[in-house]
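Appendix B. Extra example for self-study. Work through it before the problem class; the solution is given directly after the inputs so you can check yourself.
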Amino acid sequence: MEEKVIEIRGLKKSFGDNHVLRGVDLDLYKGENVVVLGKSGTGKSVLIKIVVGLLTQDEGSMIVLGKDVKKLKAKELNELRLKIGFSFQASALYDSMTVKENLEFPLERNIKSLTRAERNKEIEQVLDAVGLLQTINQMPAELSGGQKKRIGIARTLILRPEIMLYDEPTAGLDPITCIEINGLINQVKETYNTSSIIITHDLTCAKDTGDRVAVLLDGVFGSQGKFEDVFVDASDERVKSFYDYNFITQ
Amino acid sequence: MSDKTTKNNNFIAPKTDNFFIGLADAYRFVKRFFVEVWFPPYEFKEVVRQCYQIGYNSLPLISLTGFIVGIVFTNQSRPSLAEFGAASWLPALIAIAIVRAMGPLVTALIAAGKVGSSIGAELGSMKVTEQIDAMEVSATNPFKYLVVTRVLATTFMIPILVMYTDFVGLMGSFLSVTANEKVSLTTFFVQVFDALSFLDITSSILKSTLFGFTIGIVGCYKGWNSPKGTEGVGKAANASVVMAMFLIFIEELLVLQIVNFFRLP
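Solution. Structure tokens for the complete assembly:
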């Protein structure tokens, strides 16, 4: 039987009167890419923020690598976070640091046994993997949107995570760069043997990167399965309209 | 059902409730600082970097302001003292004024404007662009790295800057005095130190430490809790300055009462 790395059951989260998640169930298996699709404001990002403990659910359970995230103490949560990579929508690079310092920051704090030379080697290796070794001494402000996304992904990869969480990896990028980022997500899965949740409203990204897609509608998953099964034979009108609208606008 | 029967969740009134909620929130923030400051990991490198940013980068502005305050205060005081034939008391008067009040106050107000606003804007911007969240998910304690280091740096550096301002202010005063009377630098400083007591110097340093802590903690609190969006960053920077200045004046008043209590008649 395939190993579950994330198991979500009956997850509910509200912000005041805004009930964002109303009972979400989702499993992520080892080595799998699951794409969570949905319109803006449907709680996709909230879902992955609960996975890393940035937010806490009101009800339901979130089991990550066999641990109930809500019940973890600060130290245990940090240990779990080291196994999870989180790529932010706006990249979230530390803008007062160079690319090298951005990558060095999590490394020197979490893997203290490395020498400076070993750290430099790791940084160069990861930057090479995302194809941006030449930007090592640049500041984030000097990078393009696509480059920032890649560096953001590189910063998470430096700690060799088991799970990757991508928050809108192609948002705000041109179509060519989107294809490159989709390729990078697949490459990360192959090279680093990660399991991923990819949050997006971009159907091309979902089709290119997802082994399975799940559509979030009104706080619950409308349908889950392979891309073709979910969209081509969609019986749910809301899923169908989401698919039609996406392709018309693209 | 009438609109008037709409559920009201306020305990007293919205503004009063928000004031007390804010107060409780600020208390928790300060308490968290005092808890986290003692436990490892200690971010020495970042504290030193912040000390450099706060101290060294404030020097030009502090120097100019301190020097001008010394000259202006001396020039303004001379006519009144000369009227009573007491112009020779100028160094003593200026020393007391600068060391007891003007030096700490002027330095703290300038630092609140320059350093406090920059801390508020920096942390606010980091929050808006999810950099603080990024730090947290990479298993780094952002409170320790961003808040504790900055508050320690302002707490260490403001007293040093105050001593520097006192010195520069007294040098400005010396220039003004020598322009009118023949007084050597040694004589000037002998009169200055004769006028100052141990209590004056220690209270000035302790007061400056309190001002430094206030500037750092207020800047960090406002930035850390900045509302989302670019407007929130501006508001955080502005609120950092206004709140820090307000608290500095309140603290000045309180410290004065305490010091006067200990001062011998």
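Self-check: Chain A touches chain B through 24 residues (CB under 8 Å). If your reasoning did not lead you there, revisit section 3.
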